[in-house]
Amino acid sequence: MSMIPNWQEFASGQDLAEELADTVAHNLAEAISARGTALMGVSGGSTPPPFFRALSRRKLDWARVTVTLADERFVPTDSERSNARLVARHLLQNEAARAAFVNLYHACDSVEEAAGLADRAVGTLPLPFDVLVLGMGTDGHTASFFPDAENLTELLTPASGRYVLPVHAPGAGEPRLSLSMPVVRQARFMVLHIEGAKKKDVLEAALAQDAGPLLPVRVVLDHAATPAQIYWAPKEDRRT
Ligand code: 6PG
Q: Domain range holding 137?
């Protein structure tokens, strides 16, 4: 177990995926009964596919659900690095095939231009997010708030006037598009989904920081309007 607040620990990634799918489906259904629609943001990377597949099978009025990403790599949608492709292949299947998807990626010459278009698209959504599932890297980034991002101050500002921002960070591999801190922090139900001992150690260290620049994940958790739930399981070998 862990001293981390709202820590939910599972025996395996698959157990976590099923439980998280139940909880997320429940939150989406509640949003639909309260407001007629539900808005969900999910993350990419290697951790989410089992959760995506479990969630895709949950019975729900998916036609009333809009899905978008917490962050996206600035790569075409048919790239293996595309989070939109990951979501299309693993989440927007089965029952969830009826959900609407809003792409952050746009085929532009620069990530700045693409972020401008994504900013407009996200600005039309019924914010705040009903569900936002974030991941975390072992460098302490979440969404695309990379510790070495050129515009880290802007990314971590709780009150920037943007919905989506471009990100250039050596640690990110390629330029990125990220929901902004004000959008992330307002989520009605925020989950941090992490697996493996290393990420647990990083999160514990981030929460224990009392000096120096705080890791981005810590800044997000500190500013979250509703305390994030931390879903953790040991890391397993698997193919996505
Ligand atoms: C992405 C993400 C990113 C991710 C973490 C964890 O596009 O990479 O959305 O923020 O959640 O990097 O990635 P892993 O699950 O691959 O460890």
A: 6-233
